[in-house]
Design a protein that fits this description.
By secondary structure, this protein is mostly beta strands. The protein has three helices and 13 strands.
Length: 275
Amino acid sequence: MFLCHCMKLPFLYSICIKLLTENIAIYKPAWQQYPYPSKPEWGADRAVDGNKSDLSFTGEQCVISDNSRSTAEWRVDLGEVLSIHHIFIQYRTANVVWNRNNGYTGRFLGFSVYVSNTTNKDDGTLCFKDNFYTTDTIPNPTNITCITHGRYVIYYNNRTHPPYPAGYDQYAFNELCEVEVYGCPEPGYHGTNCSLLCRKNCQDDQCYAVNKTCLSCVAGYIGSQCIEECNGGTFGLGCIHTCGKCAQNKHCHHINGSCMNGCDPGFYGYQCTNS
């Protein structure tokens, strides 16, 4: 009962999600494109160490990348393909008020977040691309809802196609003090504390973290929960294949397309597609 009300009331939504999921990025391996030379204390791992109380360079809790670069990329490896709900980002502030007068707002503008099964962002899902924030409106920290599956969460920014909107810094930086990825820590689970198994017909045991819906279905099943068999004379993965010439116009088997009662005259084969 609490779960139902929780998910319907906006002011309880963030509390609900933290109950349903956990930060699956903490202490996971991280990488960045252009590390700051000879400064391991500003390395990629600082964004997944759980520390975000000091948002300056002296606190050694933030990723700080090299200067004067046209692209900036950072990623965390979750270790396997997992169900993700949302991503939290705390950007560097130098411990001063976050507004148009803070010099780091212009560095954050224009950022993107991807979730991918490979280290290449372009192979994955674009969760967010900033095309509209200004130095007055960009939120920090920010939460990005991205209900998907993936192994790598990738932060990206670039300054490769000038001119840029007013307020944009001329260079791209990784200045992430914390990136938290909320989802289920093991594949095949969902629900409160990620304690419920996905439906048995979810392909690769993958379902979304906060409900029972499957990412996709195994062969022979359709619907958000993969409990409906293919119908209308179809079979297979996604129910996209059409049954052959089964005897008496009977439907074929919903998984493999076999005609269980034989073929119409003139056709043969277990799917009755040969003539």
